[in-house]
Design goal:
This protein is mostly helical. Helix 1 packs antiparallel against helix 2, helix 4 crosses helix 8 and helix 5 packs across helix 8.
Amino acid sequence: MLLYAKSYQFMALNVFLAYIPIEISFYFERVKCKMFYFLAAFWLIFYPNAPYLFTDFFHLAELTIYQGSNQIFLQSIHDWFSFVLLSTGILVYGLLGMDTLFSLMDEANKKGIMTKHWQFGLITVLISSLSSLAIFVGRFDRLHSVHLFTKPVHTLQIIFFQWSQEKWLFVLLFTAFQLILLGMIFSLKQQNRIDRSH
């Protein structure tokens, strides 16, 4: 991705950031409760990078393979390769990254931190909403997760204290979008468990 599609070199960083919550999730079951809280907070900082990847689909408009509604697709192998490269990065790391939310909640359940069904729904909506906020400031204010470490006060002010009608609507829309994707992931996981039991 970094070496081939020059117009999409930014995707190397985006995919790397989306992989971080996946890597963190591998350690959920290895730590005790007190460390689990710290790890979960660290995971939450980077989790929005996973659904953020789906906003990169807009960059497909830069490809020349489709030129207007009255023309056929162009046979540019280079651009089709870029299409596959971009879509693969978004879908694989976007969905795998979002799946770590279920890993977090499963482990919280095993550790006795979350034991009631309503808690799972509340946490899912809450994290999806916070993630949508982070995606908004990442896409429109050009802030990254690392800014929480380098400029924490300034970053938190932008996230939580600067609101507009567009920001509210984006957060609501993207929260709904994430919940749909999480519902799909959850359904696939449930189906997999059913298949294993037979």
